[in-house]
Amino acid sequence: MLIRLILLTTCLAIATCSLAQPARRTLDWKDFTKSVSETIIAQPVRSGEFTIFEIQNINKFLYKVEMQGKVFELQTPIPTELQTLFRLNPTELANTANNKKAEEAVGKISEQVPVMNKIAESPEAKASGAKSPEQNEAAEEFKKSLDMVVTKCLKYLDKSILVAGYIFDLRKVRNEFISVAQMDLPFSEIQAKTEVAAAKIPAADVKTQYFELKKLYHEVEALYRDASAKADDANATPKQKKQIEVALGEIEEADELIDEEGLLGLLDEVSFLNDELRNKKNFLAVAPPVQMDGDFVAYQITITPTYTKTIGAHKNPINFKFDIPAKGGWKADFSVGPVVSFGSNAKDETYFLRDVPGQDSVTLEKQDNNNTISPGIGAMMHFYPRTGKDWALGPMCGVGAGFQSVSDVNFSLFLGASLILGKRQKIIVSAGASWLRVERLKSPEFKDGSKYAASKIIIGDVTEKAFKPSGFFSISYNLTNRVDIN
What we know:
Layout: H1 2-20, E1 23-28, H2 32-38, E2 45-46, E3 50-56, E4 63-68, E5 73-76, H3 80-86, H4 90-95, H5 100-120, H6 133-181, H7 187-198, H8 206-233, H9 238-260, H10 263-278, E6 284-286, E7 290-291, E8 296-305, E9 318-327, E10 330-342, E11 350-355, E12 361-367, E13 373-385, E14 391-400, E15 412-421, E16 426-441, E17 451-453, E18 463-478
Parallel strand pairs: 1-3, 2-9
Antiparallel strand pairs: 3-6, 3-7, 4-5, 4-8, 8-9, 10-13, 10-18, 11-12, 12-17, 13-14, 14-15, 15-16, 16-18
């Protein structure tokens, strides 16, 4: 028993989850015209279910997508983080890849190596027997300091060249990513181009290399300052002291130039662009779910090219709208139109008095009614299930139009079935039974063919109004107003 209960609960849960899945309606931006012509977005959705509309393969870096419905509006502008990047024009993009500052920094560092070598080989930096022991010791310390400057500076130069190369590569990859992001292509092709560009990202740990460069800079700076301090003890010439000070300034300026390249920020931009171009959500515009609690869900879609320097003016906004009809549930509609009743019970019975020769009496006789139909105007109410199609079938009821009370002459009743044609403005064909108020002989007071004293009968008093069933046929028109449900 317990096993059966568990199985039943599981089945109910699965069924509930499956029924709860929203109905998705999808357009493909890759081939928009074909997608619109072959789409099933306007197919019906069951009443009470949720519907979601989405556009696949649309580059939201290039297009702003607005989706308006009865109770919602969704805007997906280009991400703020990318606006500045994407507004670079082609000239600016080309200039950002030239790596001038990094190259200038490398040049400044490399120029100081031979200068320091020349000072290290000068007499002031060499111990000589002609000098005092104190002078020889100072010269040796000065020489060692200069040698360390040259050695460390060569390492700093190598690391600077390496980092400058990373800066150049990252700028080039970033520009390629920006160019890819501005292509009006489906996601699969964007992803393929992104992978090609991403393969050019330096494989090394760029951050680690940059931090090692900064560490070397501080070490080189400290060595230069140490050499400058020892130059006085070694009796270095004013020119040599000036050269060491100039070299230190050049090294500091080179460090500032490398910092101005913004390697870490550039690395973050490249990583961000790489992730965003691989994110399928950036190529999918999705409207929030709307519950089908009326006859239609109406969508208004606007696709506008975003402003970037590389987009031409030929890209025009696209506007379109569509309705998704409801399916399931019952609806009541009203219509007014002509009604034709037929059959013997749809006709009035009329009588006349025929004089009896030689007697003061008359004979009550029935007069022929040559009308084949009984036309009228009907106000009808129709009940039918929402089919989501151009037709539906359901019961109806109605009354004769123009009456003021049940006792009015024009009062009539209709009961039958209706065929509803159309989704918004509907033509309704109805047929069934009608109950009309028609003239009938008062019974048993009067009988057809009987004789009555002429002074005791009046032709207007021999009939009365009575409801009689008959068949009817009607064609009516249903005029609707569009009302938004909030």
